[in-house]
Design a protein that fits this description.
The chain is mainly α and about 290 residues long. It is built from twelve helices and no strands.
Length: about 290
């Protein structure tokens, strides 16, 4: 999950660059198209085409729609907000994932982990101190829509891991994202400039790497444990903002970052402690078996 977050942060920085030239829906389509070769080529080399076969077609379609909403909403947000501000709003997503994992996945979340997640979100607020006066309405709504779509998409990933391979989930997510966004972008399509091709290649590589890693993360661990590690994206956002747009973080970023990291480490320790305590009773050693 940490690798996925780093890859997606780099991808988001590239999205912010591209949205200055192209409409948000076109950027979403280009993101999908640019990532597909990085998924297909390894399968072409290994001859593992069967892994692309979709089994739960309805969930794949739902995830494609959610991916479109998430991508367009977030691109609209970073078009008018800094990455850090957009992330501050988007960080409601881990809380939504945790809440939805209870009714949809049957996972149990004790009060200690709820407290740690809430404290982690407080750390984000300490870092950014977001206020309505500094955020545009359109950017805020875009980030909120992206957060809700991401949370629901994370739940579908957890369900799809029971029937579909990682390659299948990543491939069809990207194909459907490109298709749905491409249909919406077609009437106002802006020709792609040759100077932007390196950006598109980097976009594809980062997007594919992040998509594979996040899919694998949700396959291996409960959503309530994985979701809080989204907070580490703030560290990448601050660095990217500083490098490309000259934003210099203040002392509150370091204070908030310490809180977020501490909460993530506590959640990891808490989950391992609960598994160790329950293993003798169920006769399973360290295995997480989804319901």
């Amino acid at each position: 999950m940490l690798t996925a977050v780093a890859a997606f942060a780099a991808m988001d920085g590239i999205l912010k660059v591209l949205v200055g030239t192209y409409p948000a829906v076109q950027v979403g389509a280009m993101r999908g198209v640019a990532s597909v070769p990085f998924i297909v080529l390894p399968l072409l080399v290994t001859g593992s085409w069967r892994e692309l076969r979709p089994r739960n077609h309805r969930l794949h379609l739902l995830r494609g729609v959610l991916g479109m909403i998430m991508m367009v909403g977030f691109v609209e947000a970073v078009a008018v907000l800094s990455l850090a501000d957009a992330y501050a709003i988007f960080f409601v997503a881990p809380l939504l994932v945790t809440a939805l994992s209870v009714p949809f996945l049957g996972e149990r979340v004790d009060w200690q982990r709820w407290a740690a997640i809430a404290t982690g979100l407080a750390g984000v607020l300490v870092m950014l101190q977001p206020t309505g006066g500094g955020l545009t309405l359109w950017g805020t709504l875009g980030a909120l829509a992206a957060a809700v779509a991401y949370a629901l998409s994370a739940i579908t990933v957890r369900l799809l891991t029971r029937t579909d391979s990682n390659a299948s989930m990543v491939f069809w997510f990207l194909v459907l994202l490109a298709l749905f966004c491409g249909v919406l972008a077609a009437p106002g399509w802006v020709p792609v400039r040759g100077t932007d091709l390196p950006w598109l290649a980097a976009l594809g590589a980062c997007g594919a790497a992040g998509q594979y890693c996040v899919t694998q993360a949700f396959r291996l661990a409960p959503a309530s444990v994985i979701a809080p590690f989204e907070y580490t994206a703030m560290l990448w956002a601050v660095g990217i903002d500083r490098m490309f747009w000259g934003t210099l973080p203040g002392g509150r970023v370091y204070a908030g970052g310490t809180i977020v990291v501490a909460c993530g480490l506590y959640l990891l320790w808490r989950e391992r402690s609960l598994k160790a305590a329950s293993a003798p009773a169920v006769g399973v050693s360290g295995a997480d078996v989804p319901p």
